[in-house]
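Mods, move this if it's the wrong board.
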Amino acid sequence: MDATKTIYLNIAGFNIKINLKETEFKYFKEIKIEEIKKYWSSFFINNKPKKIDFTINFVERKNIETIYQTKSKKSFINFYQIKTNNIINSYYQCGPIQFQIILKQVLSELLNLRQGMTVHCSAVRFENKAYLFLGKPGAGKSTAMSLLSKKFSPLADDSGIIKKEENNYFFYQTPFLEKNSWIKKNNNKLYLGKIFFLRKKPYFKIEKIENKDYVIERMTKQLFSEKELGKNQMKTLLRFVSQFNGFYFLSFAKDQNKLIKLIDFDK
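Not the wrong board. Structure tokens:
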């Protein structure tokens, strides 16, 4: 008999249990295990945790349900089903991109309840802290991260998690596949250091942001959510902006040494 295989992931401090249920198509199960190992092994935990925050079941389904819209000529595939508040069923036909969508849904639900949020950002490690870079598309998030990677370890190219734990704010890496696949990911946390809103300029300058209303407006546009901004998430954002005091403007041009020097001496 094909027994259930269980894998445990720890992401942003949450324990996620993945059950690969019995299936007639054993090869599909083997493929799924290899996919998860390939893309998310850095979030594996070997021992069963005391508490499970969410469960994802991969179950057998020979025929995947599809919905076809005649008018738009679009076809939609049902690749997961929400069973309860903390259980999702998916199918072995689901690929890595679909599994990433499921992880986004799971993290959105968990962070919404635990004073956390996912933001569009790039990030680097400065000593034992995470420095985040935010901005509109084209503002230079990837550029800033790449330039600084010569001295500071890159943490993110597109997304990061901010979460409050025991009166401190921490940064976690997301499990999402990003543009720069060479960024090494894990489930470790770092103290949140500074958040920079980027400005492409012909000069280099760091300026403290005192206007919290401006920060709220800008950060609202950077939140990364699978659903509309709800009351809980808005409360989390407002609380974060009022309690965290590390918001800055970063004006920079494409000069690696000058940018590294600017960040390195702004302690």
